[in-house]
Amino acid sequence: MSTRIRLTPEDRREQLLELGVAMIGERPIDEFSIDALAHDASISRGLLYHYFGSKQDFVRAVLRRMADGLFEATAPVDDPSLEVRLRVSIQAYLRWVGANLTGYVSFLQEAQRGNNEVRDIYLSARAALTDRIFDSCSAEELAAYGISDLPRVRMFARSWAAMVEDVVLNWINDPQDLSEDEIVASLTRSLAGVLGAVSA
Amino acid sequence: MSTRIRLTPEDRREQLLELGVAMIGERPIDEFSIDALAHDASISRGLLYHYFGSKQDFVRAVLRRMADGLFEATAPVDDPSLEVRLRVSIQAYLRWVGANLTGYVSFLQEAQRGNNEVRDIYLSARAALTDRIFDSCSAEELAAYGISDLPRVRMFARSWAAMVEDVVLNWINDPQDLSEDEIVASLTRSLAGVLGAVSA
């Protein structure tokens, strides 16, 4: 008996993206299989190409979906303290990376191996995360934190995010004697340290 | 007339490594050609394999040589001020990356695309650079800078180096309104900002 379910095109597209995100969590992007995906979604390859155009287009849409998931997971909470908002977002980042480790590492590797379209998705996702810090604060609030909203400071914020990524991946791999609270607190303080250094 | 020159095995090995470093500055590692190298060095492929075992072994030896070059280029100067020593080394790093850009970017891409042996060369080179900061200072000097010599602090120093790498590559690509002096001063200050955050 067929279990094929009739979905609207929009719902079908969503379902395929979710399956794609799950698949990227299980195997390297190189081994991403349209056949396996069509099988899992109980649709034909042809229909999959109808929705996404090509395997490359589909992979990019899946990576964008993953980046959107990270962006949503790390949204600033409603708290008057910038320090608290940063800490909560950094903790959410750390937990999201832990929960999506295989897929995220695949994404990073693909971005760094010279695939320029994937690299652009990665860089714009990273810029969105750090620009949000500036855009969710008043100039006074940033100034009280020792930070100016200048292009050079936003540039350093993006590179600070590269440092955070490196710290978090290393910490997940080998936590040493550092608790989650300690690593989150250290990373939160480091933002002021880095952005203060270039705001001066 | 043959221009082949008789070299000692040690000198020949050095010559081949230098040619390899130059070649990595000119083309992606994927396109690294043993034939072209043997031609440039006026030796046979067989002799090249005699010195290095395999193409992979040769590429790794070349990348280690490149990493050694960076380590030497950024050696701390003899100055009583830690801040001055850091600034001079960071400036030397920035200039070395600018002068070795193509090869260095190839190295990074190879390290990040999942080639574990190259990644190990990259990570140990990076750890050597940041461990030297701690090893060239007394505990008192570090303390005066707000830094403790703890494993967690050394871990953050390695990730700070990832941030520096990202800043420097971005800056070389698009300097915006930042002079070399400004970028070097900002990066120097950021080290204390980051390591102070995790020393606390």
TrEMBL record, chains A, B:
Top-level taxon in the UniProt lineage: Bacteria
Q: Which Pfam families does the entry mention?
A: TetR_C_46 (PF21943), TetR_N (PF00440)
InterPro entries attached here?
A: DesT_TetR_C, Homeodomain-like_sf, HTH-type_TetR-like_transc_reg, HTH_TetR
| Gene source species | Nocardioides baekrokdamisoli
**Per UniProt, which keywords does this protein have?**
DNA-binding, Transcription, Transcription regulation
DNA-binding region as annotated in the record:
33-52
Q: Which PROSITE patterns match?
A: HTH_TETR_2
PANTHER family the record matches: HTH-TYPE TRANSCRIPTIONAL REGULATOR RUTR, TRANSCRIPTIONAL REGULATORY PROTEIN (PROBABLY TETR-FAMILY)-RELATED
HTH tetR-type domain residues: 10-70
Protein's name in the database: TetR family transcriptional regulator
Q: Name one GO molecular function term.
A: transcription cis-regulatory region binding
